[in-house]
Specification:
243 residues, Rossmann fold, 2 domains, seven-stranded antiparallel sheet, five-stranded parallel sheet
């Protein structure tokens, strides 16, 4: 039986969100705090057709104490021919993480597709400038996959020692990962100190960032106001709220 989605589900349905049911086919523990769950797509990828795009995400529904909760997750390695994909979870104390820890083959989970999109920067950037953390790592990897020949510098905020084993899809010849330990404003300070040297022309630079809401807002304002990057050259997404 699917999760009763409450008022959020009603709103998404009014906005023409499409519902699907995914089935777990397997799971693997990547690190102590990062888990990968493999799923069959319930017809999602066939329905998406040509609209399947880099960083595509779905709203997944979880139930806790009889109440519905929705969280957004990026599709990892979607295979339309097989009708499969993977979701990756940065584990913490929450309803989605509890579900991921317990997921086993045959389990089902409901999801709604609405509002996802990606516009490739034009002109194409000479270098991707990417800022994120474990929660946005699936989207970061999807972005790197979408630009296979483009160099990239990635600032990756980490929290645990085991984050050294996070599955960052980098090619040492083209990609540089700068890991920043989470704490206070460390990520903001590192980016402000290092990123300007990598921008020759604000009009052709491209920055993709997805961190906690506060960090994303702070860095987006910095990029737009202080570094003068045009709106279309900054893609900022607040993935989660710090407690």
């Amino acid at each position: 039986m699917g999760v009763a989605k409450g008022w959020e589900g009603v709103v998404l349905k009014l906005l023409r969100g499409k519902d699907f049911t995914f089935t777990v086919t397997g799971a693997e523990q990547v690190t102590e705090h990062y888990r990968r769950v493999h799923l069959s797509d319930g017809g999602l990828l066939a329905a998406a057709g040509e609209s399947l795009h880099p960083t595509m995400w779905v709203r997944v529904w979880f139930e806790s104490e009889g109440k519905p909760h929705q969280r957004a997750y990026t599709l990892v390695d979607p295979d339309p021919a097989a009708g499969t994909f993977t979701l990756e979870f940065a584990l913490h104390d929450g309803v989605a993480s509890r579900w991921a820890r317990d997921a086993k083959p045959g389990d089902t989970i409901d999801a709604t597709v609405h509002g996802t999109g990606f516009t490739a920067p034009a002109p194409a950037p000479e270098r991707l400038l990417v800022i994120g953390d474990a929660a946005s790592l699936p989207a970061i990897n999807s972005l790197l996959d979408a630009f296979p020949q483009t160099p990239a510098t990635i600032w990756l905020e980490t929290q645990h020692d085991s984050d050294a084993g996070l599955p960052v899809r980098v090619d040492a010849a083209r990609h540089e990962v700068r890991r920043v330990r989470r704490g206070g404003s460390a990520l903001v300070e590192e980016v402000k100190a290092q990123l300007p040297a990598l921008i020759d022309d604000p009009a052709s630079a491209y920055v993709w960032l997805a961190c906690d809401t506060t960090t994303t807002r702070t860095l987006t304002a910095y990029l737009r106001k202080e570094l003068a990057l045009p709106k279309q050259r900054v893609n900022g997404l607040g993935y989660w709220r710090a407690a």
